[in-house]
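Lab channel / #folding
Pinned by the channel admin:
"Please post every new chain as: sequence first, then the structure tokens as a reply. Keep commentary short and put observations after the output so the thread stays searchable."

First post following the new format, from NK:
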Amino acid sequence: MLKPHGGEAPHRSPAPGRGRSGRLLPGLGLAVAAAVAMGGAAPALKALGTTGLTAVQIIQARAIVGAALLLLVAATLHRGQLRVRARDMWLVLLYGAISLALNQVAFTMALVRLPVGVALLVEYLSPLLVALWVRLVQRKQISGLVWAGICLTLIGLSLTGKVWSGGGLDGPGLGLALLAALTLASRFLLAERGLRSYEPLVMSAWGATVGAVTLTLVTLFEPFPLDALGRDAALNDWTVPVWALVIWVGVIGMAGGLALGAAAQRRLPPTSASLMLTLEVVAGAVLAYIVLGEVLSPEQLAGSAMMLAGIVLAQLAVLRRPPPPDDR
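Reply from TO:
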């Protein structure tokens, strides 16, 4: 599989004159691009939900397309670096099976039992979970601005997701959403470990491949109906082939979002990267307005603004923090 950069984590010094912001600002840009890519798949996912495919089948198709593309690109750009050391195999397996495959299944099952806004709010507790892990387990200091940014983002998310609508809450649904939050948090922590030695694109490729294999095994007794790819689906006023929607969610939402997110995390701390991912909700809402004509209410617009403010606040704390002596 993948060959590391000469063993342990490479320590890279910022280019002269660029300082810490010269490394973090590109990372923030990549994180925004990753969130936009993931949120950009929302209209296509919604259209696929009307085709008769189950949620797990949709996730499986997206994972297979994304994994195939990532492996092809990784093999082209990083030929000879696709070998994973035996002692790192557990990392790749957990990254793909738990933080990618299980996360998507848990969140999809939570959506069946919970209002969308509540499911999103619980899943995106992941930045808080990552921050708690960094503070309590890794014993690293976290700025008060980061905590304030996380709180502001969660309040904004509750408004954007309209958590007060949709009826009562379901215990098993909340448990599944919390499992989605835990597995999403693990994605950033596992990636932080893996990216010390492996290229972001290759880490993403093998993680997506393990996730696709896991999802295929889950649906072994209910295989994907290939004939469904020839159907059409309604996307607002357009009719789009199902195969085109599958490519959309696989290439943009899965491959693009995962690779860009991993590339961003090489330049950002996990608390910052996980918080930036919440922009996926805002990106999805904006594209839903453009493509599907879904209009945000004043409360949702205010919530989106609060989310952006919270993310900016937390990132300012990261940019202001002096680099450690071994900053890479």
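NK: Residues 89-113 form the longest helix (25 residues).
TO: also worth noting, Confidence is low (pLDDT under 50) at residues 3-19, 324-328.
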